[in-house]
C-alpha cells in the first residue's frame, strides 16, 4: 500500500493504522462558505460527475444533491475540483468583487436535493443563493 497518499477506501490488507489518520481513511470534503455566515459541506466520495459550461458555470452532481456554482473565471476552480484539490468555495457578493481580471470569483451557489430514480437537470436555477 502506498503510504504517501492514503486511499479513499482505507487501508488494505491490515497492518497498524497511522494514528494521525482516522482509521487510515482519506475522506476529503468540499465546504461552501456564504458571506453571511452559513456553510454547507459535501463529501467528495459522493461526487458522481461534474459539468463545466464557460458561459454558465459548474454543476457538481453528488449522490443526493446537485450544486450549481455561478461566477467568473471558473475553469481553474473546475480543474481543482476535478482533482479533489479544492476544499472550500467562498461565495462573494458582486458588490464585494474587486474586479481582478484573473481572479476566480463565485457569486452564487444553488443546491437542490435530488429524488432517487428521477433524471437530473443541467439547467441552472434562476434563484441560486448569493453571498
Distance between the termini: 43 Å
Number of domains: 1
- How confident is the prediction overall: mean pLDDT? 80
Structural class: mainly beta
Largest sheet: 5 strands, antiparallel
Describe this structure in words.
This protein is mostly beta strands and 131 residues long. The protein has one domain (22-130). The chain has one helix spanning 75-82, and strands at 29-33, 39-43, 47-53, 57-62, 65-72, 88-90, 105-113, 129-130. The strands form two sheets. A five-stranded antiparallel beta sheet has the order 3-4-5-7-8, with helices on one face. Strands 2-1-6 form a three-stranded mixed beta sheet, with no helix packed on it. The radius of gyration is 17 Å and the shape is globular. Residues 5-14 have low confidence and may be disordered.
Properties at a glance:
131 residues, mainly beta, five-stranded antiparallel beta sheet
Task: Give me a quick take on this structure.
This protein has one domain. It contains 1 helix and 8 strands.
Topology:
Blueprint (H helix, E strand, L loop, with lengths): L28 E5 L5 E5 L3 E7 L3 E6 L2 E8 L2 H8 L5 E3 L14 E9 L15 E2 L1
